[in-house]
Design goal:
Chain lengths: 155, 155
């Protein structure tokens, strides 16, 4: 398979099952997602909110008409850094069948370029401390692990 | 001074100089902000964007009509966690003259309660690895440092 045949674009509602399947197909994701037919309505509701908001872009990687990767890119207006726009990336996944071929890296570079064009001064993300492979992956893309990511669960 | 005299509310444009002063009055902030009269226009532009977006809330703590604390609370629609809403907090500051009196803690609790009412399943934030005091402060509020926060500077 040639990586350059992979395209990146904004997600459509029809892509939702493929995206949720990838979110669920993961050690941490399997504990918190529900990939079933039909999809729980909460996914569609969240998709609608994301699609309506010009500061949110749900991205998919596509190969021969099949969705094989995803990430959620968001733009966050902020006062800090002299009112500088931040880009943030969440929920990065590549289909397990297609991992190790540079698709995730190309998808991230595409999102980084998109952030740059939009005028963001930084791209930020967090990854679970346990995902050592992910840390190396992002370091190779130029990210620096300067911050501690903290979470408070409300449920 | 009694902490219970401190009130929390959404910021108004007139609060902007006080907020930027606090963002700048800090070891890391002083390197990247410009607190001057008049304020650089980029701050006002960012404030307008934040104010127009119902997923963003710039919060201030007020004591006797004076702004002495701030944080930026944002709500992020997301597909993960079954389409669960995330709350995120950035740019937390308390005026140096009023630190150590529980004001930051009360302001955070107020923001956490607001996130809960809005239906967020998590509150997330990142702090620079060098801010050991901040880590302890957030841990006391129940936050857990489960993630590595990574940044890629685009400027």
């Amino acid at each position: 398979m040639k990586t350059d045949a992979v395209g990146f674009r904004l997600a459509k509602q029809a892509d939702l099952p493929a995206i949720v399947r990838m979110l669920a197909d993961d050690e941490l994701g399997s504990q918190r997602e529900r990939y079933e037919e039909p999809l729980p309505e909460s996914y569609t509701a969240a998709f609608d909110q994301i699609e309506r908001d010009s500061n949110h872009e749900l991205i998919v990687a596509e190969l021969n008409g099949e969705v094989i990767g995803t990430l959620h890119l968001m733009f966050l207006p902020s006062l800090s850094f002299q009112g500088g726009l931040r880009a943030q990336i969440e929920s990065v996944r590549v289909d397990k069948l297609y991992q190790g071929q540079g698709i995730g890296s190309d998808m991230m570079k595409w999102a980084i370029e998109r952030s740059q064009k939009r005028g963001a001064h930084v791209v930020q993300l967090t990854t679970h401390q346990s995902r050592a492979d992910a840390h190396r992956f992002y370091e190779r893309l130029g990210f620096k692990g300067t911050h501690l990511g903290m979470k408070l669960s409300l449920k």
